[in-house]
Amino acid sequence: MNEFSQQNQRFLRDVDERLKRLREICVIETVDEGRARLAAERPMTHEPFDKAVERRLRELRALMELTTSVHAARTPAAKP
Question: Using CB atoms within 10 A of its CB, is residue 16 exposed (0-12), middle (13-18) or buried (19+)?
Answer without folding.
Answer: exposed
